[in-house]
Amino acid sequence: TKHAVLLLEENENTKDGVLLIVHDELVESFDTNIAEDRSKITLQKMKEAGKLYCTSVQMEAETAVGSYWID
């Protein structure tokens, strides 16, 4: 998760938005008009980071867009 944040920060278009890192979860905040696109980028970076640390098993990730973090 922390490595995925570093990967997100490498891109100027995606480095804003991370509010909180909790264990294996990222909580991000974006305008509703870009939330779905950003969710796809976050998913890609989470999987990319997982490949660096777990080479024998594919690491899965999932994203969700909601009004509140608990949605």
Describe what this molecule looks like in 3D.
The structure is a single chain. This protein is α+β, with helices and mostly antiparallel strands. The chain has 2 helices and 2 strands; from the N terminus they run αββα. The longest helix has 19 residues, at 35-53. 11% of the residues are buried.
Describe the secondary-structure layout:
Elements: H1 2-9, E1 18-22, E2 25-28, H2 35-53
Antiparallel strand pairs: 1-2
Helix pairs in contact: 1-2
* Major sheet size, sense and barrel closure: 2 strands, antiparallel
Q: Helix coverage percent of residues?
A: 25-40%
Catalogue the unreliable spans. Answer: none
* Mean pLDDT level: 84
Category from helices, strands and their pairing: alpha+beta
Q: Report the sheet-strand fraction.
A: 5-15%
Q: Using DSSP, what is the number of strands? A: 2
Anisotropy-based shape = globular
* Radius of gyration from CA coordinates: 12 Å
Order of helices and strands: HEEH
Taking the alpha carbons of the first and last residues, their distance comes to 20 Å
Strand order of the largest sheet: 1-2
- Structure annotation, total helices: 2
Brief rundown of the structure:
This protein is of the alpha+beta class.
